[in-house]
Amino acid sequence: MTFTQLRILQAVARTGNMTRAAEELATTQSAVSHALRALESELGVALLVRGNHGVSLTAAGRAVCRRAALILTQVEALEQEVAAVREQERGSLRVGVIPSANVRLLPPVLRRFGDAHPQVRLTVMEGSDDEVLEWLTTGAADIATVSAGVAGARAPTAALPAGLTARPLATDRMLAVLPSGHALGVRDSVPVAELSRQPFIMSTGGCEPLITALARAAGASLRCHYRVRDTHSILAMVAEGLGVSIVPELSLPAHRPGVHAIPLDPAAERTVLLALPADPLPTATAFAELAIALTPGPAAPEGRAPAGNSRARPRIPPASPR
Known about the structure:
The chain is an alpha/beta fold. The chain has helices at 3-15, 18-24, 29-43, 59-85, 99-104, 106-116, 129-138, 192-195, 208-217, 231-239, 282-293; strands spanning 48-51, 54-57, 92-97, 121-126, 143-151, 164-179, 199-203, 223-228, 245-248, 259-263, 269-277. The chain is built from eleven helices and eleven strands. The strands form three sheets. Strands 3, 4, 5, 6, 9, 10 and 11 form a seven-stranded mixed sheet that branches. The protein has a two-stranded antiparallel ribbon with strand order 1-2. It has a two-stranded parallel sheet with strand order 7-8.
């Protein structure tokens, strides 16, 4: 059994596809298949169910993959700590990100981290909240951005899985998106109950629980005519007049022709967190510190310090005008 085989098993488990795993690991599909068959032969159990539409883990495969994640995380930590003692920086960092944070929040952090740590191999994996939390829990990601529920929805924030810690990174408004010229667009804000009277385009890329909580708090039932994962697809459908939607401000591009975005009434915000394992890699800690430093909170009123923690409430970077 080799570390390479364990890394390949992890990649295949995450992608569900031999070809994508091979591309991610910069190797060939045949090398991936050979490594996994050799590992199965050595262990004497089937780790994967191979089908026409990809691969999935067997029960034994899930158990091996969980143990592999622990082993590989410890190996990576050992390599980074030894490199630090020798005053050499090396290793890798795998960042799990939710799509909205990957649009505007993370790119400057990734660039600055890459400039400051050129010897660290940086990998970014985009997925829903559930996906990135699973990656972090299983060791497939070393740090991740997740959302922590919506303030104003009167819904409890889901607790992080045991063994994870989190730091607040930014607050992010939930906005109504309407076709340009829509009757509701002349308002400064719009209640969710008003949106429930329109054909609704539901985001399935991770925000559905947040939107559902907002509708429940408003006593409304959304008329979901479409269910779409990609934010750009949602905006294109809104621009065509197919319906309205609710999206995080972070996910909105600076230029969105045919779409008008306005706040909800009452205002609703979610918190974007940086989640880390209990014993994070040195590179993950460095990334978290840089990310927080590059996302300053709003200035406190003149003559007053921010309440509570000395760090003001985080905010998202401003978007360009429509």
